[in-house]
Amino acid sequence: MIQHTVTFRFAEDAQVDAFWTRVDELREIPGVQRFAVLRQVGSKNDFTHGLSMYFESDVEYAAYNDHPVHVAFVAEAWLPNVADFLELDYVVDDR
Amino acid sequence: MIQHTVTFRFAEDAQVDAFWTRVDELREIPGVQRFAVLRQVGSKNDFTHGLSMYFESDVEYAAYNDHPVHVAFVAEAWLPNVADFLELDYVVDDR
To answer: What is the DSSP string of A28-63?
Structure first.
């Protein structure tokens, strides 16, 4: 199981309501589990929000990345509205 | 409920085994819930690991930060062994 996360902040001229409407489309992409919209509340960075979702394996994660809904989201909603972001992907460390 | 996360990478001369032994002490601090050690597997950043834990509220989070075990961990295990890190704290966005 892979947890895909991205933390981000909006651009000054972001169309925030339209952005969140497009975010909701991501929930429906096959393989996406436990999709969550988060607020980043820590004071030690400039990010304001986060998205988190889980995939069973790399296969589902790759299919999500390549899915037309995701590709269109990145081009039409993410890039025009997000000023800065960081993607972090986690697996439980079972040492 | 607040999720406190930190992603990080080790310094070149890190004493990794001793570091993880000290990490385990954090689990026992009062108020810490669902403590997890994570590997960061995404290729779009340089971090290699993460820690994640939940607190019921800011009260428990502040008590953790100020707890002697945490303060000693930061000074004796974190700072000498970690080359770079980013703390991100999340709450579910209930818009």
So the answer is: TSTT-EEEEEEEE--SSSS--EEEEEEESSHHHHHH
Judge: A40–B86 Cβ closer than 8 Å, yes or no.
no
User: Domain holding B72: CATH number?
Assistant: 3.30.70.100
| Cβ–Cβ gap B90/A4 under 8 Å | no
Interval A21-68: pLDDT, tens: 999 999 999 999 999 999 999 999 999 999 999 999 999 999 999 999
Which residue in B1, B53, B88 has the most chain A C-beta atoms within 10 A of its own C-beta, making it the best mutation to test that interface? Answer: B88
* List of chain A residues whose C-beta atoms are within 8 Å of the C-beta of residue B52: 90
- The predicted-structure confidence for A63-93, as pLDDT tens digits, reads as follows 999 999 999 999 999 999 999 999 999 999 8
**The whole model's pTM is what?**
0.94
Q: Distance between CA atoms of A72 and B82, rounded to whole angstroms? A: 38
Domain count, chain B: 1
Write out the residue range of the structural domain in which residue A34 sits: 2-91
| Region for B34 from its dihedrals, namely left if φ exceeds 0, alpha if ψ lies in -120 to 50, beta otherwise | left
Contact A37 B93 (CB under 8 A): yes
Verify whether the Cβ–Cβ distance B90 to A50 is below 8 Å. Answer: yes
Confidence class of residue A95 from pLDDT cuts 50, 70 and 90? low
